[in-house]
Amino acid sequence: MLNQLKDNYAFAVIRGKSAEDALEISRHAIAGGIKNIEVTFSTPNAADVIAQLVDEYSSDDSVVIGAGTVMTTDLAREAIAAGAQFLVSPHFSADIQTIAQEACNLYFPGCATVTEIVTAMEAGCPIIKLFPGGSLGPSFIKDIHGPIPDVDLMPSGGVSIDNVATWKAAGACAVGVGSALSAKVATEGYTSVTGFAKAFMAALEG
Fold it and tell me: Can 24 be counted among the known catalytic residues?
């Protein structure tokens, strides 16, 4: 599972205005080539969205459905019960990591300092989300990889079509892309999500 997530490389961070909005953004992102789907708990009925997507893509091993904005242990349990295959939060929680490990799940916490990163690594988190990525910048990854070369870092926030190749070159093991994915839905419809996803994945090849 971890290898599949890294191979897919891009995570679509889905913050739907409604459950149906989240489903449509997710489906169109997948159609455009972004196969890691992170449904955030800021989305109404997020657990139901996760469960439906897990069911819809159960026959496609390349698609991985997970949960984002997992702020509490209750949300972690709810996400796992819905079928989420990974958990992401904007912070590090030892309690969420314990729940993930007990369920043989994957937890990617948000960190912004060396101390936070090392704490999450020592707890067994396999990927550390750099958040907010836009504030930290690609050079932060190079700086961290100097003393800690083996840590897998995934920026979220501040990743765009224009800079995703720079993040990859800096050593990011994956990237998360959020609001830009659905920025044109209101004016151009959900097909704009597919178009963005295709352009984003093409930009990865830089």
Answer: no
